[in-house]
Amino acid sequence: MKVWIKYLIGIAFGLAASFILPMENAKCAEIIAFLTELFIRVGRYLVVPLIFSTAIVSIHKLRTSKLLGKTFIWTVILIVLSSLLLTLLGLLSILIIKLPRIPITVDVASNIDKLDVKAMLLSLFPYSGFEAVKEGSFLLVSFVFAFLIGWESASDESAFKPVFSLADSCSKLFYNIAVFFTELMSVMLVAIMCYWTFEFRNILSSGIFTPMILMFTVDFVIVVGIIYPLILKYLCHDPHPYKVLYASISPILLALISGDTNLIFPLSIRHAKESLGIRRRCGGFTFPMFSIFARGGSALVSVIAFIFIWRSYSKLSIPFTDILLISGFSFILSFLLGGLPSGGAFVLLTILCSKYGKGFETSYVLLKPAASIICSFSVIFDVATSMFGSYIVAVKTKMVEHHIIQHFI
Q1: Mean per-residue pLDDT for 117-145?
Q2: CB 388 within 8 A of CB 228
């Protein structure tokens, strides 16, 4: 049975459970919330070991084959262009379509996560390199350490062959365990979907956020149904550009109901290898890079949400200079969200409000009830970017073994 079918079955059972179980009961809701948190932790359990070992192998092979520079350039170009594209799409969407105003409330702003750029830079180089493999959220820390090991091990292959062999074995081992976990996730999705549905129903019940959610949905359909396939067909001359979308069904489904970029990583790697045929030396480099830096989805939803809030507070038109500042600020800050695997989009929104609120700096509280769904939509954009982007890099660097669609997992 295809993985996406298993996931759909798990989602269907979770959806049914949300209507059967007495979620209004505090004890029942607490149990489902606990199971959801537990299963998400299980799904993220092997992310760092998998990234660390696979990145060592990837960097080593890319350097020895002299493909590291080309792979890096293509990856950076696609990350920057995709983030810019998504930011502009979000801006155009909210400027063209005027959403209904949000009723102004008197909710008190609460403490939220903030972007501490200095702390992020310092965390890249902890006091001990071995501490890098302890970091479970900011994947760049372990990726940098793996990059150094992979780079240096390729400088003298005979001397450092045992290091490469160990990393290669660990990479294969962790991948096989991750495959088991991704299969198990189809069962764990029952609880995660049940909790997500309960939250989503509460968000939709007021009807306030429905137009914004519809805008996110339409934008996503445009991106994955039109823009990305056209880019793929133009750049790679691929006669079947929608096969990448087909291979992305399971990661997108999991991204939507979890809102966690790190949780999706093992599943994306598996589909990249077993469905799209992306070789490990390419995927081991591109997927961490896209997962850490390609957060254009957060920029898209944050721009839409911020202008949505602005129009709710004021009937005045937004000055063009402010539009440029808002979109440019969102675009730039999106590259710094790698340390926030979940909730990054809402953090970006709060920063926009504090910088450009002009009297309504804490107005992000208007959208706080919908924070989870805002972040979920940002993640599905980023997951689609990661899948399409990694495949394009693999094709342009000739590190892909094409599989027929019938053999996709």
Answers
A1: 66
A2: yes
